[in-house]
Every structure is written in C-alpha cells, then in structure tokens.
C-alpha cells in the first residue's frame, strides 16, 4: 500500500508529453532532484526526502537573439559509472548539463536535411549505457554519444538504424557489456521494439514487430522487456528471443509512463485514464517463463497523467505529474 505525501509545487504545470518526469536520488546528500518539461522550458527542482522544496531552476534550449526557444520534448538524468549528466531534447537540438543544470557541457544540433517539409525534427528518448548516452530522433535513428569521465569532449560515436518511425523511448539495464546479453531496448511510434547489446559498436539482437499502436514507454529488467502501448496494454517480452509472455489490459487509455524499481522488480505504469498501477515481475528459474502480479492501484482524480517515476531503487516511493497540474504528487509505502 502507498499513501500520499507532501506534494512539491511547480512554477508551471507539466506539459502533456509522455515520460514527462525524471527523478535523480542523491542519498549521500539527502536530496532528490526532479525534472519536468513545461513548453520551452524544463523545471529542475531539488527537495529534501520529505518533500520540502529547496531550490528550483529553469533551463531552455539556447537559440539566436530574437528567436523563440523551441519546445522541449524531454528532460532526463543519465547516470553513468563516473558522472551524472542532465539531458534536454527539443525540436532543434540536444543539450547536456552537469547534474544540477548549472553548466552546459555539450550541445548537438539536429540535422533536418533528411526530413521532408511536412515532417518536424525533434529528439526524444534518452538513456545511459556504460559510457554512452543514447538519444532517439524523429527519423527513427538513435544517436550514440561517447561520454568522457570529465570535461566537455563529448563526441557522436555512431547512429543506430533499426526503426522506420520516430523513437518514443529508450531503456537500458545497468549490467551492460556482457557478451550476448541484451542491455538496451528502443521503441517507436509504430510499436516496434528493437533490442540491442551495447559496446564499442552496438549490435541489434532482436526486432519485435509492432501491431499498429504506438509504444510511448519501455523498460528493461533482467532480460524482460516491459512495453506500454497506446491502447492501455502492458506487454512483457523475453529480450533474448522476442517472445511475448504476458499481455495485460492495464489501463483504459494511452500509457504515458513506465518505470522499474530494479532491486525488487516492481513495475510502475501510468496512463491518461488517471490511474497509476504497481506490478511485480518475476521469472521462473526452471522454465524461464515470465509472470506478473498486481500490487497496488492509485487514482489521481480528474488528472491526465503524463509522467511517473519511482523515487528509489526499491520502489518504496513514487512521484507523478499531470497535465495542467502545478505540482509533483508524491506517494510512499506504508
């Protein structure tokens, strides 16, 4: 069971974008960072664990004088083995900052050369894998940036091709680099999932076909791919084979966010139907079959949800954002 805790006020409401919440836990400093997109700005908030707001910062995409800043599509913290970077994506470029947003260390302009006149350019879908940061684009390609241990010498390492429609989300597992082990999954607007192995050169291991429904959010845990779809379904696949093991009619409307608590295998799903659901994933060690059980449901009345994240790796608390809601809602287990 979870109960509602003190909410954190926002300067502006969250934009109606999927995956519109990022959370960074800093236990050594007894701090939580939250990131939320609001139009052309990203709000970066720091709070004490009990929800007391401590600091707030607004970031925008840098453009020329007299030019309106572009809309931001996502904000996300990328936790690498040696540093943490805050990444913003937009319709014009990608920007990377130090973890508190105080200093921009790198930016990358989006090349609109291969976009038709009717097609908007944008980046969306952000994840860290070993010493790389991967970012999805409108063209279906994934940009892989090589991140140094410190400093701004970030370079575009390669571009991954596996999708024909815009990328929606990217998820990775922390136990990367093992031979033959899938450690990254990407999703797109047609519902296609691509399973990758990271490394100096990324390798496409599996391509799970879509069924005509977008997949706004995806997660990866111990070889299990969890995908949330526009029809409210959550599907669980085996990452190594691409086989579908579980199909859940989890929500009545489009799923806007999935998140995983890696220490315990809890899966959080949030959707435009106002509900947040908590599930527990498991795998039979003998047969390899994947199972799931429902743990908790929470209704956020009269709210179109757009972001939801666990606040710790054990899944003992989570946070939620909603469209036209000028606060971050927090819940903790009892």
TrEMBL record:
It is found in: Cell membrane; Cytoplasm; Vesicle. WD repeats lie at residues 248-289. Keywords: Cell membrane, Cytoplasm, Fertilization, Membrane, Repeat, Ubl conjugation, WD repeat. GO terms for biological process: single fertilization. Residues 1-334 form the WD repeat-containing protein 54 beta-propeller domain. Pfam families: WDR54 (PF21031). Its main location: membrane. SMART domains: WD40. InterPro entries: WD40/YVTN_repeat-like_dom_sf, WD40_repeat_dom_sf, WD40_rpt, WDR54_beta_prop. It comes from the Eukaryota. One of its GO terms (cellular component) is plasma membrane. Plays a role in the adhesion and fusion of the sperm-oocyte membrane through its interactions with IZUMO1 and IZUMO1R/JUNO. When cross-linked to form dimers and trimers, it has a regulatory effect on ERK signaling pathway activity in response to EGF stimulation. Colocalizes with the EGF receptor in WDR54-specific vesicle where it sustains the internalization and controls the degradation of the EGF receptor after EGF stimulation. Homodimer and homotrimer; forms tight forms of dimers and trimers. Interacts with IZUMO1 and IZUMO1R/JUNO. This is Wdr54 protein. It comes from Phodopus roborovskii (Roborovski's desert hamster).
